[in-house]
Amino acid sequence: SPAVELDVDGEIRAADGILFGTDTAAANALDDYEEGTYTPSWTVSGGGSVTDSGNTVNLGRYTKVGRLCTMSWRSYIVQTTGTITGYILTLPFQADSNSPATGMAEEFGQTGSGLKLVISVNGTTCAMDLYSGANFTAANSYMQGSITYQTA
């Protein structure tokens, strides 16, 4: 005598997704859920370069439901050469062709500067620069942020 009409002890697999209530639209089916970690990879615009400090702080997490991905990261960046005008961060999944996204981050190790994030259509990276439009002046800084975007 189960407590409810269907009581499963273990895994359930559905070939086409799970619908809720009286909804029959395939677009509303719960067809994919994933969460995990990834290691952010960085490149630099403006002639500078960065490296992870070796403090094992270069961490990223994501949750993906259907095609909607929310990612967050925290990295410790060391400015090694040049004048950094922007950072480029890899994404865990490629962005959709019709859904550019913007978000916020913070460089808080030295100056507490606010950063703007932009993911272009079909993008595999997220570009970051300062809200003020000035160059990055801090070195050896923590950065953290999050963004939600549609995947391809």
How are the SSEs placed, and which strands pair?
Layout lengths: L32 E6 L3 E4 L3 E4 L6 E7 L2 E14 L4 E5 L10 E7 L5 E7 L5 E6 L10 E10 L2
Antiparallel strand pairs: 1-4, 2-6, 3-5, 4-5, 5-10, 6-9, 7-8, 7-10, 8-9
Which keywords apply here?
0% helix, 152 residues, 46% strand, mainly beta, 10-stranded antiparallel sheet
Kindly name the structural category.
mainly beta
Output the radius of gyration: 20 Å
Globular, elongated, flat, extended or rod-shaped: what is the shape?
A: elongated
Helix content: under 10%
Count of alpha/pi helices: 0
Q: What is the N-to-C order of secondary-structure elements (H for helix, E for strand)?
A: EEEEEEEEEE
The largest β sheet comes out as: 10 strands, antiparallel
Distance, first to last CA: 44 Å
- Unreliable stretches covering 5 or more consecutive residues: none
Count the beta strands. Answer: 10
Strand content: over 45%
Mean pLDDT level: 77
Compact overview of the structure:
This protein is an all-beta fold and 152 residues long. Helix content is 0%, strand content 46%.
Describe this structure in words.
By secondary structure, the chain is an all-beta fold. It has no helices and ten strands. The chain is elongated and about 70 Å long.
